[in-house]
Amino acid sequence: MYGLGIIRGLGVTLKHFLATYVDDLRWFFQRIAGGGGRYYNPEALKARQGAKARGIFTVQYPEEKLPVPEEFRFIPFLIYDTDAAGVQHDRCTSCGICAKVCPPQCIWIVRSNDPATGRPIPEPTEFFIDIDICMNCGLCAEYCPFDAIKMDHNYELASFERMSHHIFNKERLSQPASYYASIRPRNNAAEEAARAAKEAAKEAAKEARAESA
Ligand code: SF4
Ligand code: SF4
Fold first, then answer.
1. Among candidate residues 92, 112, 110, 109, the one with its CA nearest the CA of residue 100
2. Whose CA is nearest to atom 7 of ligand 2?
3. pLDDT tens for residues 36-55?
């Protein structure tokens, strides 16, 4: 019969439309208990994004934000470690590899020199990234031999001031190692394990040399 397909299609739309309200009612008691209904808490968000989600809904950004996967990447940041005395140490050695591999060439590094000898020292005096030019490819993080630059999850960086707000300097880019561990726990654990294995191999080689001497 002509038009049956259209009626069936409208039926599907109507089913989703009604399911939206049914699902809202299912979360109603959580909402009045202060749980934020099906919109604003991690449990509800997970259910809404899962295979059992029903109805039609819109992400109510910025009140509601979808969690990003660990591998999500936006703008790079620099990692520093803090020693037992509370002194911060940049992991970056200003080797310049990231700046060289960056496809749109938006990284600019100023290397440091020892004021006494004039010789280069392995840390940057300045480190800039033009975040409007960065294409979020992650190549800088992939190629850094010191795990010093990683991709951030923070995507809320819009502003009207390009020069003052969108050219990130070293201070703006730097984050503690604990921040990296918090946003990329799986990556961080793998890198820590690789570092520990490398150190153990180095120690074993040292001991073997000492024994043979
Ligand atoms: S972030 Fe890594 S690759 Fe870039 S200059 Fe520093 S150490 Fe080298
Ligand atoms: S993410 Fe890509 S474009 Fe952005 S700074 Fe790194 S290498 Fe350059």
1. 109
2. 102
3. 555 566 677 777 777 878 88
